[in-house]
Amino acid sequence: MATNGSGSPAKKIKKMELGSNGEATEEDPETQKTLEEIDKCQNEIDALNEKASEEILGIERNYNRLKKPHFEKRNDIIKKIPNFWVTTFVNHPQLSPLIDDEEVDCLQYITKIEVEDFENIKFGFKINFYFEEGNPYIENEVLTKEFSMGNNGEHKSTSTTISWKKDQNLCQKKKKDAKPTNSRKRGFEEQKKFFDWFADNEDPQGDDIADIIKDDIWPNPLQYYLVPDVDGDENGMEDEGESEGEEGEGGDDDDIGDEEEIEGEEGDEGEEGEEDE
Amino acid sequence: MATNGSGSPAKKIKKMELGSNGEATEEDPETQKTLEEIDKCQNEIDALNEKASEEILGIERNYNRLKKPHFEKRNDIIKKIPNFWVTTFVNHPQLSPLIDDEEVDCLQYITKIEVEDFENIKFGFKINFYFEEGNPYIENEVLTKEFSMGNNGEHKSTSTTISWKKDQNLCQKKKKDAKPTNSRKRGFEEQKKFFDWFADNEDPQGDDIADIIKDDIWPNPLQYYLVPDVDGDENGMEDEGESEGEEGEGGDDDDIGDEEEIEGEEGDEGEEGEEDE
């Protein structure tokens, strides 16, 4: 080991190991054979990784099935609380700046949200926003935004075409408002708003907003419903220091009743890893 | 639903849902009871997440055991190739700038690397660097750097105290060199170097270098051995464009022999998710 090249800088080593044009095939036959052995070994490791991955997906699929009735039950209970979802959104530190006043009005009519993984969870998920019938903004009963990955690894997203009621198209209104005058008070007209995000399917990969809804709000909305965005709010809440060192998924701090505390962060992390693919 | 507060801005909604000092306990009794129901439901979901997490950890533990002999075999084959590990490190785009010329000399004497997860993989891992006996730099046969997490969630790292041979302490040498003169050519004296990283256990959380070795190099070192860091090298390699749209874990492009191509990325991702805790 390390008998040749002693004292050589990085570049010498690179050259030593690679042919003049960097092709592995220009290694000497002995080294070439050894590299092929390593590669073969690597393929065995990769095959085991793939099997592990399949089994993990199976578990996640199974637990998604087991969790589903609980999510449905949770949705039924949530319906009893007016404005639960819009409050949760508005209280979320990253979603809050995304939602302007008129959108808050509209989002009040959300009665139910569902986040559903595909049966093969690594191929995508969809978010359903249900709207109260007879609301003044939207005709659709449900707006769905779906993120999927094809077999070729290509990411795409699609979303329901929103059927706005007369003169209520919030996407168009904003555009109109933003251009001629500068009369809006909040000063974030340029930022993408909630319904712009919903309608925009140009860049489906790494959609932060979808990830927040799917991986942060949906797993535990109550923590945001109860704890408003401290930033810029007059309520001097002291919740921030407590979650130090954690990944911010907990929500166990928000004990309301005297139910047992259960830490359930890890299950979600496993899922997150898979869907980034 | 959404019958009250129509037209109210975000702040009104926040106030409506929260007592004057933001305490959940100041909700009206009916809402309070409903929130407790949601919380109870949430606990059931969290318990399922925890069970899923346990099962996933079990699978990862099992496959770690199955992969171990293959990693050992791979290490045995790698030993036949001089400078395999130092070349791999020097070719890695993120590790390359970390390793100065003298360290390259020293790292040539690495004969074996091992990355070992703890039996309960979410509690940590260690990296072993084996050095050739009789090398001019280091007395230790093996240098180990270990990252662990206590039951309280606290991260820590420890590393073997390096027993440098006479006048070969590369950490001290660098400090001496760097201060009085400015004669080194590369101009990255200020940057932390490999052995500084090894010895430094001040900030064990989110150690990028450990993560690169564990999650990028160790799963497939061959891809870096064969494909040098294109940046700043005179070999005009054309490997970059091929991995577009992928997460950069592949390595399957580097086919040497005619072994079957197996995609094995996902298994590793599942593991990564768990260890960030």
Please outline the helices and strands:
The structure is a homodimer of 277-residue chains.
Chain A: H1 10-17, H2 29-78, H3 84-91, H4 101-107, E1 110-117, E2 124-131, E3 142-149, E4 155-159, H5 170-178, H6 194-199, H7 208-217, H8 222-226, H9 265-275
Family (chains A, B): Belongs to the nucleosome assembly protein (NAP) family.
Organism (chains A, B): Graphocephala atropunctata
Pfam families (chains A, B): NAP
Structural overview:
The structure is a homodimer of 277-residue chains. With 277 residues, the first copy, chain A, is α+β, with helices and mostly antiparallel strands. Among the domains of chain A are: 47 residues; 128 residues, Nucleosome assembly protein (Arylsulfatase, C-terminal domain), CATH 3.30.1120. Chain A contains nine helices and four strands, in the order ααααββββααααα. The radius of gyration of chain A is 26 Å and the shape is elongated.
